[in-house]
């Protein structure tokens, strides 16, 4: 076996990589790319209640956007929620991608969201990450 700029172990070249145990080795965090050439704003979604089917959110468009992402920017979806219908290059959707948020001790709070219609995650976000739920659920 020949060593080329790294460590050879069992016939495999390892260059600056760390092995992960079990299932973690195959699991990777989902990423998406913003495909709106004008950029894409994130908004605040406020949890307003819950039902057996999931949580109800109100997306706050009347407030200033939380953050702008440029075309090609990478985002990291945490979960998804239902919101207003938006049309983009992948069709129309009511799925909104959550990039995280916070909750009060009562379980109510906010999520920072952007529409799935303008983010390329490779498939419908609803098939890739869980639906958003209150903290502790």
Short description:
Helix content is 0%, strand content 47%. By secondary structure, the chain is mostly beta strands. The N and C termini lie far apart (52 Å).
CA-based gyration radius: 19 Å
What is the tally of helical segments?
A: 0
Mean pLDDT: 75
Task: Output the structural class.
Answer: mainly beta
Query: Quick one: overall form?
Result: globular
Largest sheet at a glance? 6 strands, antiparallel
Strand content: over 45%
Any low-confidence stretches, pLDDT <50, length ≥5? 1-27
Number of strands: 11
The succession of helices and strands, N to C, reads: EEEEEEEEEEE
Characterize the structure shown:
The chain is mostly beta strands. The protein is built from no helices and eleven strands. Strands 4, 5, 6, 8, 9 and 10 form a six-stranded antiparallel sheet that branches. A hairpin with a 5-residue loop joins strand 9 (91-103) and strand 10.
